[in-house]
Amino acid sequence: MCRTLSAFPITCLERAKEFKTRLGIFLHKSDLGYETGNAGKFEWNNKQSKERSFSEDVLGWKESFDLLLSSKNGVAAFHAFLKTEFSEENLEFWLACEEFKKIRSAAKLASRAHRIFEEFICSEAPKEVNIDHETRELTRMNLQTATATCFDVAQGKTHTLMEKDSYPRFLKSPAYQDLAAQASSTNASPSSCSPAEPLHT
Hints:
- The protein has helices at residues 10-26, 47-51, 54-60, 65-69, 72-84, 89-100, 106-121, 133-142, 152-172, 174-188.
- Helices cover 60% and strands 0% of the residues.
């Protein structure tokens, strides 16, 4: 007998639906404008979700900041939170740097480097990140011969800033606390959410 949705208790399906709805509301306005692929979009069936349950993914976000950043849904949720604090530029810069490192064309690398610098690093940039003057000038000098590592120092500074400042507030936010509680509830009742065993004849 196949394990289909009909094998799950109604309460389990309702709880899963509610869980998905809550995260959907949390991420509703998350939309990363920079070239970061689909990082700002909620993905219920992404690669990570195939390897472990989505509730475990959500609970894993509090284990470490890097684990949060390794999850597309985690990044989207964190970005949604940062938008409520009007401080999403640090994450967007970090993501832009990650995409920048994937470029193989020298011409495209130089062009993209200047775009990132003008959007996030230079004084009065539209999404100016919070870095010190020394790092800003070092990055400016690196642009003279753009390489995949020219933003490493600035990216590292924003990573540290988010990890020590924004990340703890995210974990304490009502939105994440509510989501984590729902995830814990899902994990805590495996018997009610386990598919029925196949019939033996």
